[in-house]
Specification:
With about 100 residues, this protein is of the alpha+beta class. About 40% of the residues lie in helices and about 30% in strands. InterPro entries: MTH1187/YkoF-like, Thiamine_BP, UPF0045_domain.
């Protein structure tokens, strides 16, 4: 399983707020709930799942601003693909929290 941090930036919006685009992106993400886990953060979205599925999800999410009339989109993606053991978002957080005790 891999973990992806994704930020989708619509360029050329009418104003500085992008929350409407984020909401539309999350509606698309909800259609993948049976195949990935995800968490919205103030600055990005974290998604975990099998890498081929994550690439499919990334493409679908990247298309959302275009479907809303935006002519340019910048998408930043970071992939954590650990293959020596299974990792999850919660497992990574638990590991750090244990070390903080």
């Amino acid at each position: 399983m891999a973990i992806v941090d994704i930020t989708i930036i619509p360029i050329g919006t009418e104003g500085p707020s992008v929350s409407d685009y984020v909401a539309e992106i999350h509606k698309v993400l909800e259609t993948y709930e049976d195949r990935v886990n995800y968490k919205l953060t103030p600055m990005s979205t974290i998604i975990e799942g099998e890498l081929p599925v994550l690439f499919e999800v990334i493409q679908a999410l990247h298309e959302v601003p275009f479907s809303k009339g935006i002519k340019r989109v910048a998408t930043n993606v970071r992939i954590d693909d650990r293959r020596d053991k299974s990792v999850t978002m919660s497992g990574k957080l638990n590991s750090v929290e244990e070390k903080l005790k």
